[in-house]
Write a structure and sequence with these properties.
The protein is an alpha/beta fold. It folds into three domains: 2-17 and 151-234, no CATH class; 22-149, no CATH class; 248-330, Arc Repressor Mutant, subunit A. 49% of the residues lie in helices and 13% in strands. The protein contains 13 helices and ten strands. The chain has helices at 8-13, 22-32, 43-55, 59-69, 89-97, 101-114, 127-145, 149-177, 254-258, 260-268, 275-282, 286-298, 317-330; strands at 2-5, 15-16, 183-186, 189-192, 198-201, 208-212, 220-221, 230-234, 302-307, 310-315. The strands form three sheets. It has a four-stranded mixed beta sheet with strand order 3-4-1-5, covered by helices on one side. It has a four-stranded mixed beta sheet with strand order 2-6-8-7. β9 and β10 form a beta hairpin. It is globular, with a radius of gyration of 21 Å.
C-alpha cells in the first residue's frame, strides 16, 4: 500500500500534467510488451508494435538494452523519467544525458538489488553509453509511440477535462476522490495499491498527477522521496468502436455528416460538457441533447462519465480526430 499524505498547501499545489509524458509512455509501453495483463486494451497497438519493431530491425536492441533496464517489476530507475519530459521528448532525453553519473550509479544499484540489473548497466554512468540509450529510446518512441500520438493525446486530454470538472465542482479533493478504482481518498491521505508498503509525505510540495495511456494496474510514484512528487495512474480503457466516415477527408462538413444539431453537440463536448450545457450550445431541450449524446456515444465519438448528480460528456479519440479533420477540411 502507498499512502500519500497531503497538507492544505499540497492540495492547493496538486495539478495534472499538461499532456502525455513521452518518457513515462515509453517506459509503461515497455511493460505492456512484457505481460498479457490488459492485453485486450492494447491489442491493436501490440500487434502493430511488434511488426514495426521487426521491420525496423530493432528487436535485438529492445531485448538487450531497453527491456532489461525497464523490467515490469517493483522498480526501474527514476532518471529515465525526468520532469523535463513534460516539455517534450527532446527535453526529456537531454535531461537523461545530463543526469549526474553518481545518481545513475546509485539508481542502477537499486535496480540490481531489487530486480536484477544487466551486467552492462553501470556503464550508463558514462556519457557514451547514455547516448546509446537515448538513441534507442528515440527510435523506439518514433517506431511505436509516435504513430499513436493523436490517439494517446486525445485520451489524456479527455481525462484532463474530467479532472478539471471535478475540481470546479468539488475542489481538488473531488479530483482525488475519483482517480480510479485502485485509489481511495480519505482526507488527508490518498491510498493506493503498491508493490511495497510506503508512506510519501508531500510536505508542501504538491503532487503532479500524470494520466498515462500505456500504464495498467497500480499507480506508479518515483522511488526517491526527495524528487518532485508525481503519481502516474492509468486511464480507463474501453473498446474503440467505429471508424472515421470515409467521405470526411473530401471536405464534407460535420453538419452534413451528422446534422447541424448533432454537430453542435459534438463541438460542445470538445472541452467537456454536461447535458444541460450541450442543450444550451445546440439550442435544444435537455432531453433532446441527451438523445443526441446517446447517438454520438453509441457511434464511439463521445464518452460519458457520471459525476455526482450530473454527467460529463467528453470526446473519445475518434471524436477528437473527427473534429480535427473537419476543421482542417474547412480551411
Amino acid at each position: 500500500m502507498l499512502r500519500i499524505h497531503f497538507t492544505d498547501t499540497d492540495l492547493a499545489r496538486t495539478r495534472v500534467a499538461p499532456g502525455p509524458d513521452p518518457l513515462w509512455e515509453i517506459c509503461t509501453s515497455l511493460h505492456r510488451l512484457q505481460t498479457r495483463h490488459g492485453r485486450w486494451a492494447y491489442a491493436d497497438w501490440y500487434r502493430t508494435a511488434r511488426d514495426r519493431l521487426r521491420s525496423a530491425h530493432f528487436t535485438h536492441t529492445l531485448r538487450t538494452l531497453l527491456l532489461p533496464l525497464v523490467p515490469r517489476a517493483a522498480y526501474f530507475p527514476d532518471f529515465l523519467t525526468p520532469p523535463e519530459a513534460s516539455e517534450g521528448l527532446d527535453s526529456g532525453l537531454d535531461a537523461i544525458l545530463a543526469t549526474p553519473p553518481s545518481r545513475v550509479l546509485a539508481e542502477v544499484g537499486i535496480l540490481g538489488r531489487t530486480c536484477g540489473a544487466p551486467a552492462w548497466a553501470p556503464r550508463l554512468a558514462e556519457r557514451g553509453m547514455r547516448e546509446e540509450l537515448v538513441r534507442a529510446m528515440r527510435t523506439y518512441h518514433d517506431t511505436v509511440i509516435a504513430p499513436y500520438a493523436e490517439h494517446v493525446h486525445a485520451r489524456v486530454e479527455a481525462e484532463r477535462c474530467a479532472r478539471a470538472r471535478a475540481v470546479l465542482d468539488h475542489g481538488t479533493e473531488g479530483a482525488l476522490r475519483n482517480l480510479g478504482p485502485g485509489l481511495r481518498w480519505q482526507r488527508p491521505v490518498l491510498h493506493t495499491a503498491y508493490p511495497k508498503d510506503r508512506d510519501l509525505r508531500l510536505n508542501g510540495r504538491g503532487l503532479l498527477l500524470i494520466p498515462s495511456y500505456f500504464s495498467w494496474g497500480s499507480p506508479v510514484a518515483l522511488a526517491e522521496p526527495t524528487l518532485a512528487p508525481v503519481l502516474l495512474y492509468s486511464l480507463t480503457h474501453e473498446p474503440h468502436p467505429g471508424t472515421l466516415p470515409a467521405d470526411l477527408g473530401s471536405g464534407a462538413s460535420l453538419a452534413k455528416l451528422l446534422g447541424p444539431t448533432r454537430a453542435a453537440v459534438l463541438h460542445a463536448t470538445a472541452d467537456g460538457a454536461t447535458t444541460g450545457e450541450l442543450a444550451r450550445a445546440a439550442g435544444v431541450s435537455a432531453s433532446s441533447a441527451s438523445q443526441h449524446a446517446t447517438t454520438l456515444r453509441d457511434s464511439g465519438l463521445i464518452t460519458t462519465h457520471r459525476r455526482s448528480s450530473s454527467v460529463l460528456h467528453t470526446l473519445t479519440p475518434l471524436g477528437a480526430t473527427l473534429l480535427r479533420v473537419s476543421t482542417r477540411a474547412r480551411r
